[in-house]
Amino acid sequence: MSALLSIERVKARYGPVEALRGVSLHVDEGEIVALIGANGAGKSTLLMTICGDPRAAEGRVVYAGRDITGAALHEMVDLGIAQSPEGRRIFPRMSVLENLQMGAFKGDPANFQGDLDRIFALFPRLAERRSQRAGTMSGGEQQMLAIGRALMSRPRLLLLDEPSLGLAPLLVAQIFATIREINRERGVTVLLVEQNAYHALRLAHRGYVLVNGEIRMSGEGQKLLDDPDIRKAYLAGGHG
User: Does residue 1 surpass a pLDDT of 60?
Assistant: First the structure.
């Protein structure tokens, strides 16, 4: 495998507050990599820094051998990077179909119907709700829509920010099973930011632990899951 995404000694600030303190990590082609940590550790900030908001104060973001540290968001889409952000950020007044159309706005129109059919196969609930206003759906359905919208751009790299946030346990399991399918069946590389360490590390090939803006541990997902320090800090009674 070769590194598709490399974060090299990245620092990021909000005013005087240093949110990322020289973070380095890599995501190889075809991997699922999980980034776990407590609330406020800097996980979401790292994903936003990859996408240029905030800009990295120091260090580099390299994607497919290209320095994208200063790239605009629309350039990221052109390069094959898609993000499903924390809080979903769907268009609540638009229908499910219109949200998915927004995800495909830079793609080839000839591919639209086939891509739409694949999203509906992945998330049958969205097919049932295609004409419904997105804002009237459940939290789980909105999360499916956020991921589906990101996939409509045919990404090579999918950035997922807290996909389990606020969901019931059964829906969490469904979402993580779908992420595995996206990776295995479609070959999409995934960087997953997640507070649910149990599900994230079970799913991931590798993982990183972020503490106060710094990487403190890294390794294979299962080895991190078995680590007593990780279990004590991030798993309540063995489950996140």
Answer: no
